[in-house]
Design a protein that fits this description.
The strands form three sheets. The protein has a four-stranded antiparallel β-sheet with strand order 4-5-6-7, covered by helices on one side. The protein has a four-stranded antiparallel β-sheet with strand order 8-9-10-11, covered by helices on one side. It is mainly beta and 217 residues long. The two termini are 30 Å apart.
Length: 217
């Protein structure tokens, strides 16, 4: 059932327990009790059950989730460049999906929102090179914020004029077939003025490698 006044998915649940009839409204996303009515009286000689405890969906918050991931990785906030930070539901469990770069390593974390425990952690060392000889590339990284700024500057827009900003950090191995000799790139997407923009930014120089602008359907 959908509540017409607010876009909230609700379930109306009715059941009896030891002679008492319960009529409950349950949040369809979190499973929390929204309301509960107790109907009827328990027969003499029976004990009326206590009111079911309303389950609470604890959420430590984005900042605490980031702090938990950084602590596990052994990094400080100043050492990390964030690539992804999203709050999501997975099989009824609230989680934070986090990706960041620090100390020449890319980290991928899943943090449980209720207590900040680490559900998943992965890391990949970013290849380093002392120069450009032998086909290897420099590990200079302008960072996600600078890459976004380069794309916005090329589009002639400011951050306040766009929505749906996405930024992914990746290595382009197409020309070499070797992760250690690829090119660091940022794939950036955003929307503005009825258009959808897609940019590929060189992660070392901030140069615009590719860009597209299409109608946002």
């Amino acid at each position: 059932d959908w509540d017409d006044e607010m876009p909230i998915l609700e379930y109306e649940v009715k059941f009896t327990y030891k002679g008492d009839a319960y009529d409950c409204t349950v949040d369809g996303l979190s499973g929390a009790f929204i309301s509960q009515d107790l109907e009827g009286t328990a027969p003499q000689g029976t004990t009326t059950p206590s009111t079911p405890t309303t389950p609470t969906t604890k959420d430590i918050g984005m900042d605490a989730a980031k702090a938990a991931a950084l602590k596990h990785a052994g990094l400080s906030a100043g050492d990390a460049t964030w690539l992804k930070a999203q709050r999501e539901w997975d099989d009824g469990r609230l989680e934070y999906e986090l990706e960041f770069v620090g100390n020449n390593t890319e980290y991928d974390y899943t943090i449980l929102a209720s207590d900040g425990s680490v559900i998943k952690s992965e890391k990949e060392v970013i290849p380093q090179s002392s120069g450009t000889s032998g086909g290897t590339t420099s590990t200079t990284d302008i960072g996600a914020d600078a890459a976004k700024a380069a794309a916005l500057s090329h589009a002639g827009l400011s951050a306040s004029q766009v929505t749906g900003m996405k930024c992914e950090r990746d290595w382009d191995d197409d020309h070499h077939g070797d992760h250690h000799s690829g090119r660091l790139e940022y794939e950036i997407e955003f929307r503005s003025g009825g258009y959808e923009y897609e940019y590929t930014i060189d992660g070392a120089t901030g140069a615009v490698l590719q860009h597209e602008r299409d109608w946002d359907d």
